[in-house]
Amino acid sequence: MFNRKMTGPTRLEEYSEKYKDLFLMTRRRGILEVRMHTDGGPLQFDWPVQAAYGHVWSDIGRDPENEVMILTGTGELWQTGNPEVWNTKFMDWPNRRKLEMYHESLRMIENMVQCIDIPTIGAVNGTGAHWQLGTLCDITICAEDTAFFDAHYLGGVPPGDGIVLALQRILGTKKAAYYAYTGLNINAQEALDLGLVSEVLPREQLLPRAWELAEMIMQAPRSTRHLTHSIVSHQWKQAFAENQGLQLTHQLVDMAIDEEGIHERLMKLKERFQRNEQ
Q: Which one Pfam family would you cite for this protein (predicted)?
């Protein structure tokens, strides 16, 4: 029998409670602020976090009370990586878990683009892993000490998680290749000059500015907001349909035949990553 409760809109009271250990949510006048965190500090990325991303985007997108979304982090870092998640080499993972990893990696960013039909603002509060989520938003602003970089290649892994796809789409083919191979930092001013972000602000002004932009967006009729978001996000939908599956597959195939293991290489390059996160 058709169950309207199971298939109908989701409610903030329910999903904000479900994800409260990873995402703190506040909504005022239709504007939903989603703040990533772990124990009140920067979000510490691990595999449960990766799986949660795809689900949270779906729940947010199914709630008609959400009219603009602000995505931000906690403290001075966007989110932190945890090399210990690679203690077990990917080639030694059970096959079923490898397949789950593929789907979770896709949904982490694909569902953000495909499931959320409202204007989005990324307020990147500092350096950190998976910053592509902030640049997938319609408008991206960042704190003035933020650095963007991709360390996959330096760690001996093809860059297939969406960072290079974002660089390709925003910066162009040659610049994206340069930053993919070198892993060099793009500081906030360079990110502004390159078009990776739209504004650079002191950290204390970042979230107030995000809300100011959100309130400005809310002044337009609802249909105008939704359809404008559809127009400006269409390029991302095309990019994911055409390239993300291919890029991610290349990364996971290489990981599946990697005998040394990512963790070992990351430990050799630990100082390099720590410098990038400062």
A: ECH_1
Distances (CA, A) of 37 to 41, 173, 175, 243: 5, 33, 31, 30
In the DSSP assignment, the letter for residue 80 is: E
CA distance 98 to 96: 5
Whose CA is closest to 260, among 131, 86, 133, 119? Answer: 86
User: For residues 270 and 157, what is the distance between their CA atoms, to the nearest angstrom?
Assistant: 15
Distance CA 191, CA 185 (A): 10
pTM, entire model: 0.92
Instruction: Kindly report the length of the chain.
Output: 278
- Eight-state DSSP code of residue 92: G
Domain 4-277 - what CATH class?
alpha beta
**Residue 120's closest CA among 66, 65, 180?**
66
Domain positions in the chain: 4-277
**34, β-bridge pairs:** 25, 71
Please return the burial class of 153, using the count of CB atoms within 10 Å of its CB with bins 0-12, 13-18 and 19+: middle
Give the span between the Cα atoms of 191 and 275, in whole angstroms: 18
69, 60 contact by CB (below 8 A): yes
- Alpha-helical runs (H) found in the chain: 4-7, 12-18, 47-61, 95-115, 132-135, 163-171, 173-182, 188-194, 203-217, 222-239, 245-256, 262-268, 270-277
Q: How confident is the model at residue 6 (pLDDT cuts 50, 70, 90)?
A: low
The C-alpha atoms of residue 21 and residue 34 are separated, in whole angstroms, by: 12
Among candidates 26, 67, 115, which has minimal Cα distance to 220? 67
